[in-house]
Amino acid sequence: LKGDISKDDERLIAKNGAELIIFRWGAKRVPPQNEIDAVINIMKDVKYRPVYVFCRAGIDRTGFIRAYYRFFVQGWSRGEALGEYYWMGHLPNVHDDYLKERFLNAEKNK
Questions:
Q1: Cystine design at 85: which of 48, 67, 73, 107 (Cβ 3.0–4.6 Å)?
Q2: Phi–psi pair at 74, nearest 5 degrees
Q3: Residue 24: which of 4, 41, 47, 43 has the closest Cα?
Q4: Each residue of 50-71: pLDDT tens digit?
C-alpha cells in the first residue's frame, strides 16, 4: 500500500509469477473510498490469491485494510476487527476514527 519496493523484491515477485499492484497511500490520511474498494475487490478475487498486503511499517495501512476486510468481507464484529487492528501494533492515527465510524454506521444499517 506504499510504493517503496526494492528492485530485488520486484524481481522476486516476477520470478514467482505474482503481480505487484501498488496503491500509494500515506499513513496520515484516509485513502479515497474508490481506492479502498479497489483493494478489497483485489483481495476478494481468487485470481489474485494468495494476497500479500504490505506497507513500509506494516501497521497503519496494512492494519487498516485488514480490519476493513475482516469487518466488511469476513463478517467479523467491530470489536474483533478493531481488536486485531490494535493487537497487531497499530499506532493511533486518522484511520481509527474512520474505521470506527464506518463500522458503527454499517451496524446501524443492518
A1: 67
A2: -90, -10
A3: 4
A4: 888 877 766 688 889 999 999 9
